[in-house]
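anyone seen this seq b4? input:
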Amino acid sequence: MDIFLKYLIFIIVAVIPFGIERKVTIMDIDVWITLSDVLISLALLIWIYYKIKSNTINTLTTAPLLNLFALLILTFLLSFVNAVNGYLIAKELIKFIVIIGFYLLLVENASTKTLNAILNAICLTSFIITVWFLIDFLNGRVEPDWQRLWFRGLVSPVHLNAMGMFLTITIPINLSRFFNSRRNFIKFVFIISVLIQFVALYLTFSRGAWIGATMALGALAFFKYRLRGVLGLLLIVLVALMISSLFISPARLRGRFFSMFNPREFGIESRGHHMATAVKLIKSNPVLGIGLGNFKIAAKKYHNEELTEMAHNIFLHYAAEAGIISAVLLLIIFVKHFLNVFRIHGGLKDERAGNVLLCAAIAFLGLTVTVQFGDPFIRGIKEYFFIVLSIPYILAGDKE
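predicted toks r here
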């Protein structure tokens, strides 16, 4: 059973970035169900059955961060009180319970061998997805300016902000394989993979991902190699920028970059408007919120605002939907996790494990910065959020 679950975990990680999904309508609510959602649910059912049968269900209570996640789920449940639409809460609540279950499954069942397989799957699929993205960009199937979508043919389009988040996570994971490779040829392969992912990151036009990746990878370069590392990172950045000019004019890239400093730019202005509306919703229901998943319809009902489904800031978003306590709990989870990373890193004796831990922490740091402008719990990214969250605890509780 353990071997079967480990193979299933590997398959789940391998299919996540391909976004194989289908939209179903339940109670007049559109629900996107991905192949990874189905496989994760199957894995959880098998795992829970196995734990009940072996009378080991009580071991779940020792999982790292579980108490904080349980309290977070409680705030989501309480948000039913003021909800505009309870079905939306149920949909989002099921999503969170399943994905937190996936995190628990990883922490308890993955060994370092399984973790290596997971990291290899991320590296391979990130390379495939990036090459696919670049080819489609050349063929006009990526619209970076207005719709900001990658039209992928038979599978659903991907928003470029989600693609940016994906690359913010996968670049450090690829670097962990670079650091741990002993053969120069393998190192060369991974540095090429990192380079083309940088190119793709620029072409997403995701300013939040640019900021998150720059801060996180800058910290990694300095921590790992000091000034030499920063200079090496700058070299990769410059080479990636030159390659990017083969796909899009440098003037468009410059325009997108400098738009970050223009408060009247449409995207910046829209984000400010979303955040301001979130603050209004928080003031009206500071304790219980307006209902998980209800941001868009509550903004329309109470303030006659036509907004998207997220506040474009993770803490304001969940404070508005599930009360200030939920946002505080999220912040505590982030801080507690980084404190745990420092503690675990100090106890690791193996340099290779230390490199994996460091790069996973950097991936999580990049995501932490990026989510100040978006939501990491959207489909296609939520699984990666919990995968990189689980890596330090897999290393700390190695079963082999």
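The chain has a mean pLDDT of 91. The first helix runs from residue 2 to 15. kinda curious what u guys think
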